[in-house]
Specification:
By secondary structure, the protein is an alpha/beta fold. It has 12 helices and 10 strands. The strands form 2 sheets. It has an 8-stranded parallel beta barrel with strand order 3-4-5-6-7-8-9-10, surrounded by 5 helices. Helix 7 links the parallel strand 7 and strand 8. Helix 2 crosses helix 3, helix 3 crosses helix 4 and helix 10 packs across helix 11. It is globular and about 55 Å long. The two termini are 36 Å apart.
Length: 289
Amino acid sequence: MEYRTLGRTGLRVSRLGFGGAPAGLRRYLTADDRDSPAFRRALIAAIRAAAARGVTYFDTAPGYGEGLAEGMFGEALEGIREKVVLATKFFFREPWDPAAATAALRESLDRLKTPAVDILQYHGDSFDDARSDRILASGVLDWMEEMRRRGHTRFLGITAEAPSGGLERLLKTGRFDVGLFAYSLIYQCVCDYQREPFGIIPYARSLGMGCAVMRPLTSGFLQKLLAAEFPDLPADRVSRMALKFVLSTPEVDVAVAGMISEAEVDANVRLADDPADRYDLRALHHRYV
């Protein structure tokens, strides 16, 4: 397994991370019954297989099935918690209520069976200027710092679906140690190698932040698109290409892939285990002969 230092946190993390959205979100990507004992056993086995294969970064959220994913992660990582980097998230609800947020975080920690996570992330999507203004005025960033002072987390993070000026304003505060950004073969604007490179990921790195990415396998979009045109093209080949592309991006510390089976873990770990098998992104984007 290839490892990186996650920005200024100093945490040593695997390039491949294990994402929790498919574990808890019902009907997300597959029709599996997330509440069934069989699914829970398979998911827990996949998490443990990932840890045994060298994956050290595990990312979840209370919003993934109203705590369902956190409960599975807590059970799966019990006994090896100190050997992994564990990240979860919280929601910003208006009007902001610090006491309610603290109670919700304690519930997350109980489900995760840990007194503290390594990274507590603001669970965001898109940030326009008005939303960023409300966040900065609300005191939520002060609350995050207080949770760190109380020992509930070691580092602070933010997740974002899209780049924006509002997001840059939040990052510029210097209060976030880690960013989790949407980035993939079909969504390159956050780290655009046509511009050497340009985007929110290089900007975050310039601030000393660690950079993880979500949906490196495109949440199945690329697989469905290519299947429509090339029905004989195996979906696993497409997934391999998508993950290989993200792992080929030097600015990305961790590619957080949602996995629900040991077979998926094995396939993704094999790819992450070979840093020599990467694309040359500058060569791929070169246009002039």
